[in-house]
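Entry 14. Ran structure prediction on the chain below.
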Amino acid sequence: MKKMMPWLATMLLAITLIVVVVFVFMQGQNGNKDDTHTAAAAEEKNDCG
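Output, structure tokens:
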């Protein structure tokens, strides 16, 4: 079991790092999605008018 400890610690750190990176990336994408939605709404208004 002691031989597995470094592997377990490395895997936990890697998974944590991946989760943090994905979370930060998704937060950045939310801002872009809001911009595209507002742009689409503006286009729809122009089409109706």
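The chain has a mean pLDDT of 78. Will compare against last week's run tomorrow.
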